[in-house]
Write a structure and sequence with these properties.
There is one protein chain. Helices cover about 35% and strands about 15% of the residues. The protein is an alpha/beta fold. The protein has a single domain (about 5-165, about 190-285), classed as Alpha-Beta Barrel (TIM Barrel), CATH 3.20.20.140. Helix 2 packs across helix 3 (about 80-90), helix 3 packs parallel to helix 4 and helix 5 (about 130-135) packs across helix 9 (about 195-210). The longest helix has 14 residues, at about 55-65. The chain is globular. The model is unreliable at about 240-255 (pLDDT under 50).
């Protein structure tokens, strides 16, 4: 990843992280965020009371001053409150996303009211009416299949089937006790019980109807998480039932995305969601030199997305396996304070 967007993070931390990366004090992707969510529930540290357009503008301007480009509304309970936010963001030239709380009707009102995006799954099988409304609204839909509402999550599928515990690269970059905390003794779920393939089919239908769908991995697992999300978008878990092999019935008569469609949702459409498609998301003259070089073609097998030879950000080149910098000058990979050998050497 060369650019990340976090639609829910402590403002005092995440904007400082982004500034450290830009200043060269930290190695990492560009970091953008909505900062603290503007929460409608009575949670003191993030509660944002909004009873008028004036209130909404105050909240939007506050987050804009932190450095947010997009704000996130989280469970503002009344539709009138959400409309105030939509109008305030239009006035302030800000993007606007939200958490729909897994409620189809709430998400649909937000697409009607001018939200530029919403996060998380439309949690049921989608039929033509919802597909067309979502597509024609041009609201960006980020289904987060790893935490797809409506049934067992995609994350559970991958902990169950992909054996990340023994992934050498993951263990190089993530403390092993954190991997153990998730990967060991994970519950086994009957394959046909997983719901995320149904959500993936709905997202594919929206995309094919001219809508906007973008990848978001919800931070479930650093490094591998976005690849899992990509694979799930492209039909991992299948558009076929495990027991019979028969094609899933769908109200939209669609299947999950093709590898190319999933890659578009992960690159140019994701960049467009956060307002960066003029500079990022595709390889074009005049854009920033951001891309990855793979050892195998993901169009042949979407799992090849993890076979990364080089990562290029702003024209600088890193070795994908170790994060050793190769160009314009060679630099050793970063040291991690949590590795015992590196602790001993200090």
């Amino acid at each position: 990843m060369t650019t990340v967007y976090d639609p829910s993070a402590p403002s005092l931390d995440v904007f400082a992280q982004g500034e450290q990366v830009e200043a060269g004090l930290m190695i990492g992707p560009r970091v953008y965020s909505s900062g603290d969510v503007l929460y409608g529930g009575q949670q003191e540290d993030i509660f944002a009371e909004v009873n008028s357009l004036k209130d909404a503008k105050h909240q939007v301007r506050r987050m804009k001053a932190y450095g947010a480009r997009m704000i996130k509304v989280y469970q503002q309970p009344r539709r009138s409150q959400r409309i105030y936010f939509a109008e305030a963001c239009r006035d302030e030239k800000m993007l606007l996303t939200a958490e729909g709380a897994g409620e189809l009707h709430t998400d649909m009102t937000m697409t009607l009211d001018g939200f530029t995006a919403f996060e998380h799954a439309l949690p049921v099988r989608l039929y033509k009416d919802v597909v067309e409304l979502t597509a024609k609204s041009q609201t960006f839909y980020t289904p987060t299949l790893l935490v797809a509402y409506g049934g067992p999550w995609g994350e559970e599928y991958y902990w169950q089937t992909a054996n990340p515990h023994d992934d050498a690269k993951l263990n190089r970059f993530v403390p092993h006790d954190l991997i153990d905390a998730k990967a060991r003794r994970y519950p086994w779920i009957w394959p046909s019980e997983y719901h995320f393939p149904t959500v993936a089919e709905g997202a594919a239908a929206v995309l094919r109807d001219g809508g906007n769908v973008s990848l978001g991995a919800h931070g479930q697992l650093q490094g591998l998480g976005p690849h899992w999300e990509l694979w799930a978008m492209a039909g991992e878990g299948g558009t076929k039932t495990r027991e019979s092999g028969e094609t899933r019935e769908s109200g939209t008569k669609s299947s999950a995305m093709t590898p190319m469609e999933a890659l578009r949702a992960s690159t140019i459409l994701a960049a467009d969601k956060i307002g960066f498609s003029p500079d990022l998301g595709s390889i074009e003259t005049g854009k920033l030199a951001d891309f990855v070089v793979l050892d195998a073609n993901p169009l042949d097998d979407i799992h090849n997305s993890v076979k990364i030879r080089w990562v290029v950000k702003n024209g600088e080149v890193w070795e994908g396996e170790t994060m050793k910098k190769l160009w314009p000058r060679e630099e050793p990979p970063p040291k991690f304070f949590w590795k015992p050998a590196e602790k001993a050497s200090r």
